[in-house]
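Why ABC transporter ATP-binding protein? Reviewers of the renewal asked for a concrete example.
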Amino acid sequence: MSDPRPATPGTATGRATEPIASGVIGPGCAKTDPIVIADGITRSFGGVTAVDVEHLEIPRGVITALIGPNGAGKTTLFNLLSGFDHPDSGEWSFDGTSLAGIPSFKVSRLGQVRTFQLTKSLAMLSVLENMKLGARDQRGESLWRALFPPLWRAQERAIEEKAMGLLETFLLDGKRDDYAASLSGGQRKLLEMARALMSDPQFVMLDEPMAGVNPALTQSLLGHIVRLREQGMTVLFVEHDMHMVQAIADWVVVMAEGRVVAEGVPAVVMNDPAVVDAYLGSNRDRDLGELVAEIRAERGVPRPAATGAVRATAHATHEEDR
Ligand SMILES: Nc1ncnc2c1ncn2[C@@H]1O[C@H](COP(=O)(O)OP(=O)(O)OP(=O)(O)O)[C@@H](O)[C@H]1O
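Here is what the prediction returned.
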């Protein structure tokens, strides 16, 4: 599934125009400026190999979409890269620093933050308190500094100003004193993204940012994600909504059965018969189902009775999309 075309992404308004990949495009291909480099990452749960990624590079300064059918391993890979889970094997680095064995709170201090498929805002804290928790290196956390209020009061004010600035951007400033529990699902997604930005990250990972967001908030959420790139951040997001992927992604990575099975610019990947087949259910000669069958055969896993999870879920995804 490699693509010999030049690795220059589309030039649609606001999209990156520099080449993203540095050679032939395909699964695991090299990037001109990778921010994350992962090698040999595996993670199994019982007999299920959730992730088996030979090599993956995430390009810096652009928006990458991680797509794939249900159960492809996307969230597990997110958990591993962000230190919320530990792989059985493998190494990966963020901005040149090895992250193997580094816990999630340290990963976020290094500038890599993530949101969750199901939002993790603390329901019984106010919106503003949730935001403050996102700030890093808070001086009041040190016992010595806590004993000297002037040392942390100034910082406390700065944190609150920053939080309010972000809440205004995300149109949540009017909710600052409300419990997070009182927000709608979409507003909680916005809060989670806003909170992630409190730590001035370089790399933002969003797990299904559109799930549960009503259409009225969709445009604003898309705008926020595009602005992250405009502000110089790198974004990696998992998404089932192919409209969103086409609208904002500069690069697309496709996973199936734990592996990276395709990569490229959206205009190419989204028209790849294999990907189209997996997501849109059209009958093409070449499909991810074949790849999945090959992977299963290699592993000695018997093929399920149905055509395969990829195709089955692809239809479901398409139905939801309509
Ligand atoms: N904690 C766990 N315990 C057991 N199995 C797990 C666990 N987490 C993930 N899995 C399994 O690993 C595989 C990959 O799951 P994962 O959630 O990473 O897929 P996904 O691509 O994110 O799917 P979805 O799009 O449905 O969220 C699935 O077969 C899943 O059942």
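Residues 1-13, 280-289, 303-322 have pLDDT under 50 and may be disordered. This is the kind of structural detail the renewal will allow us to pursue systematically.
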